[in-house]
Structures are given as structure tokens and as C-alpha cells.
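Standup notes, structure subgroup. Blocker cleared on the 2,6-diaminopimelic acid input:
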Amino acid sequence: MRFVKGHGTENDFVILPDPDGSLDLRPATVAALCDRRAGVGADGVLRVVRAKAAGDPVADELAGEAEWFMDYRNADGSVAEMCGNGVRVFARYLVDAGLAEPGEWDVATRAGLKRVTLGPSGDVSVDMGPPVVQGDGRATVAGTEYTGLRVSMGNPHLACPVDRPVRDLDLTRPPVVDPAVFPEGVNVELFRPLGERHVEMRVHERGSGETRSCGTGAVATAVAAAGPGRTGEWTVDVPGGRVTVTLDGRTSHLRGPAVLVAEGHIRDDLLR
Ligand SMILES: N[C@H](CCC[C@H](N)C(=O)O)C(=O)O
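Run returned:
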């Protein structure tokens, strides 16, 4: 099976073109593809399927409004509602493959329609929808408890301010959270303000572990850094690069690079 490899600020994905929805993508297959030693290696998989052929109830509902459905999977094979870097790489792939024109159009996701804007090359922007602030939450990272802001971007986030350079944090083990507060798990961001509307961030993702970047997490972080009701543009520095988040009080936008780096063939025995 053909694949393309791409990334957005080094949050990387195996892209599986499956326009007619013929691939039965099982969790074990996703985990094998994402394995950085025995497989291709990635933080997640983006199955590229026409919404009407996806065999997904949300995709069925949105098929009249978007041609393509992003079937996002985490590296452990779990399914997540939304992926901000992923949908930008997904859009770059569609234009690169000649399956969509540069411009502005909707992609169907499990978190609803997401409007992407992209040229023939360069950065890709996406309307991430309205962040939903859900109150405070706590996470213990390497023995230190942090309090942060719970934000839903369609998927769950806990964005915690820290008072030290984020490079000094130990994220080798998953943050410990209260399963009663986060029954579906949570993506945990740790951020430090670097200046007015400028933060640095690291993330431990649900289902993928620490990644070099997280688009939904960058928006959740900007919301936490901004505080209630503040609007404008935030620069979010992640280990994999830099993204820009714009909050306008109604919705949120994410902008940054989306790069395709390779393509190849996956042998059938990896797809079993
Ligand atoms: N890296 C993704 C987030 C994946 C979220 C996933 N780990 C989850 O379980 O919600 C992003 O750019 O938004």
C-alpha cells in the first residue's frame, strides 16, 4: 500500500490514501505503522478517505459539506477527535496530490468541519473552532503537581503554566491525572510565557506520548496564556518549530508549516 510521510512542526504522520474507503485500518496496524523501529514511524496516521466512503457516522453526516474526511489515529492505534497539525498536513497532501485546489475549503473530521486555507506551497491555516474552557485541572509530572486549564478542542487538553524553561521538564513518563476528571484521557501541555503573546510549550499527548508539537494543544495553550476574553495573535514555540494561534473571541485559528517529506510502499505483511 502506498503511503506519504508528512509533518507539521515535526508532529509527524503516515498518510494513507484510501479515497474509496476500502482499507480496514485496525488499531494494531496503526501501531505497527507508527513504530519508529519496526515500522515507518510517526505520531499518528491520517487516512485520506472521501467522507461518503469513510464508513464513519460523523463523516456520513458531513459528506454533503466536505469531500474529504480526515480519519486520524494516534500512534497507539487509538482514535482521536481532532488533530490540528494533522489537518494542515492532510490539506497539503490533497493539494499536492491534485485532489484539491489551493484556496479555502472544509475538511470533515470527527470534531466537525474544519476550514483550511492554503496556497500551492507554504504555510497552512485552519479554523480550529471555538475553544471550550472547562475549568481547572491538575497533572503530576515527574513528581511535581501542576494546575492548568482544561480546554476542549474537540479533543481534551490540560494546559499548565510552568515557571522554568520547558526543556528542563521530565516528560519521559506520562503525566498523572485523575481519571474521574479525564475519563477519556487528556493531552497535557506545559508552557512558559516568553513575552507578551509569546509562549514556549511541550506536550505529552494522549495515545502518542511526547510529541514535538501539537496543534490543538497550541490553541489550548494560547487560551490558557491569554486568560478569559483576551483576543489576538499568540506565537507558540514548540520543540519542532513555531506555530501562530489567533483568538478572536468567536473561534480560533492555527497557522504554520505543513511539509511532505517522503512517499513509499508499505509491504502487505505490515498491514495484516
Ligand atoms: N497532535 C495533534 C493532537 C492529537 C491529539 C491526540 N493525541 C488525542 O488523543 O487527542 C494536533 O496537532 O492537534
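Discussed briefly. The longest helix spans residues 84-96.
Next: hand off to the docking folks.
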